[in-house]
Every structure is written in structure tokens, then in C-alpha cells.
Design a protein that fits this description.
The protein is an alpha+beta fold. It has five helices and eight strands; from the N terminus they run αααββββββββαα. The longest helix has 12 residues. It is extended. The N terminus is likely disordered.
């Protein structure tokens, strides 16, 4: 049903309808819809996020884990299981045996030097006075590495196009040719960090001279 809905739609009351916002497929559609849905909770959140630079705060490791969500009667899940690798822009299979839970900063008791355990072997013994703790949540690990879970992770793993675009496009190359006079020149490279793991590289070569010669 969602495939037939227009991402341009706003319900008669002037507020955005949840079904239509779910149907959004691109950042361009989101921004257009946001302008028409001004005053809605989601549009207000997007405004605040832009003004505060929220996308660049609390950047994680670029690894997202979903165990799968909303089991179907005939098997499987409405939202896929897997691990999203933001650096490679790729979904990988989940090996659930490699999942563990870190209690270092959670209000749960653990012996000194204890290692994170698999959920089936873990202990949940409240310790509200634990030094250095700040949450009741256990921190997920996969193969000992930090991973993010939750609503965004589920959408990334499931391949929701709007969310995967927001998480960052694959690497791209932007060539340019600039004529320079002989002598020293100052180079300035500008880029925008969208809050995801990123790498940038600058390469140059004189016209007609192979790279690595005469530089």
C-alpha cells in the first residue's frame, strides 16, 4: 500500500500523515515535504536538528546491528536482520553468537575485570550505586566491537532508502583541471562532515607529466 502513496501528500488537517512520511524515498522529497508540513512535530525536529548541528553530534562507529523486528506469522521479520557497515555502505549477515553486552557503565553488578557476555549468559543484577554508571541499558557489542542498535539501525539494515542516503553516500571522485603559474601555491580543501565515518584524499599531477615525476 505504501508504494502507491505520494510523498507530496499532507493530510487534510494540515499535519503530515505518518503513512506519507514513511513513503519518502529521498532527501529531496523529505525537504519538499518538510516545507509543506511546517508546524508538524517532525518538521520542527528537523529545523532544530539543522540549527544545532545535531547530525554531527555523538558520531558513532558506523556499525549498526538489528536482530530483526516484527516477526511475521509465516516466518522472518518485517524489518530485516543484519549489520549495516556505513563505511562500505553494505549490509552484512548477523552472526548472533558474536553478540555480547557490556555492563561497564550500566547500573548492574559485575566482578572486576569481567568481560562482556552473550545475552543468554549475562547477569542482570541491579546496582544503583555503581561508580561511573549512568544508564540501565547494557551496551551491545559484536565480536568485541561497538555497534549501534535501535530505530535508525533497524531502518539502515532493512535498506530504507531515505535513511541509507542520510548515512552517507559511497566514496566519490571529483576531478578538476586548474591552470597554475610557475611557483608555490596554497591549496585549500573544503568539505562537509555529515557525522558519519569519512575519509578524504587530495591528489594532483601536472598536465602531460605522469604522476610521481617532476613533482
Amino acid at each position: 500500500m505504501l508504494d502507491t502513496l505520494s510523498p507530496d501528500a499532507v493530510c487534510a488537517c494540515g499535519m503530515p500523515d505518518l503513512h506519507y512520511s514513511i513513503a519518502l524515498q529521498t532527501l529531496e522529497q523529505l525537504q519538499a515535504w518538510r516545507a509543506r508540513a511546517a508546524g508538524s512535530d517532525l518538521a520542527l525536529f528537523l529545523d532544530i536538528a539543522d540549527q544545532t548541528g545535531l547530525a554531527a553530534l555523538g558520531t558513532g562507529p558506523g556499525r549498526y546491528l538489528s536482530y530483526g523486528a516484527y516477526a511475521k506469522p509465516d516466518g522472518g521479520h518485517a524489518l530485516a536482520q543484519g549489520v549495516w557497515d556505513a563505511g562500505a555502505q553494505q549490509r552484512r549477515a548477523l552472526d548472533a553468537s558474536r553478540i555480547s553486552e557490556d555492563l561497564s557503565h550500566a547500573w548492574y553488578a559485575q566482578s572486576e575485570g569481567a568481560q562482556p557476555l552473550h545475552p543468554t549468559n549475562g547477569l542482570t543484577q541491579p546496582d544503583p550505586d555503581k561508580a561511573g554508571a549512568y544508564t540501565w541499558n547494557k551496551a551491545p557489542r559484536l565480536g568485541g566491537q561497538v555497534v549501534e542498535t535501535g530505530a535508525i539501525a533497524r531502518q539502515l539494515v532493512d535498506g530504507q532508502p531515505l535513511i541509507t542516503q542520510w548515512d552517507g553516500p559511497p566514496p566519490a571522485e571529483y576531478p578538476a583541471e586548474v591552470a597554475l603559474a610557475e611557483g608555490a601555491h596554497e591549496l585549500q580543501l573544503e568539505y562537509q562532515n555529515m557525522g558519519t565515518p569519512a575519509r578524504i584524499q587530495l591528489r594532483w599531477e601536472p598536465v602531460g607529466v605522469p604522476l610521481g615525476e617532476g613533482l
